[in-house]
Amino acid sequence: MESKRQQKMASLLQQELAAVLQRDLPHLFGGGLAPAISAVKVTPDLGQARVYLSLLLGNNAADRLDIIKDNAKEIRHALAKRIRQTARVVPELIFFHDDSAAYAAHMDQVLGTLDIPPAPKDDEGDADDKPARPRLFKGE
Fold first, then answer.
1. Do the domain assignments include residue 84?
2. What pLDDT was estimated at residue 13?
3. Is 134 inside a domain boundary?
4. What is the DSSP string of 6-72?
5. pLDDT in tens, 70-110
6. Residue 57 belongs to a domain with what CATH number?
7. What is the pTM of this model?
C-alpha cells in the first residue's frame, strides 16, 4: 500500500511527465502523438518511479518505447526543470508499456462474439412475481 507521500509524488510526476512529453520534447516522436501516461508508481524512498505508458495510438509500440527509454536521461532532465521548486530529488524513471486498454478491448471483442442463449423462464412464480419472504421463526 502506498503512503500519501508516494501518492502525491506519483500524481505530480504523472502530470508533469505528460506535460514534458507533449510540450517540451515533442521532437522525440517525430511529429506524432506523445504517449499517454496511464500510471506512475513510486518506491517508498522516492528514488525510482515506474512509469506506465499507453502506446495505443500509432503503430510500432515497441519502437516508441525504445525511443523513450533511450532518451530517459533527457526526459528526466526536462522533468527536473519543471519540478525543481516542488521536489528535492527527481526519481530515476523506468518506463513500461501498459497494454491493459488493448487487453480490455480484446476481451470486449471476445465477449461480444459469444453466443449465449437466453435463460429459460420459470413458470412456477406467483401472479405478482414477488419473491417469497424468508421465514425467521417456525410459527410464521
1. yes
2. 95
3. no
4. HHHHHHHHHHHHHHIIIII-GGGGTTSPPPEEEEEEE-TTSSEEEEEEE--SSS-HHHHHHHHHHTH
5. 999 999 999 999 998 988 889 999 999 887 777 888 888 88
6. 3.30.300.20
7. 0.70
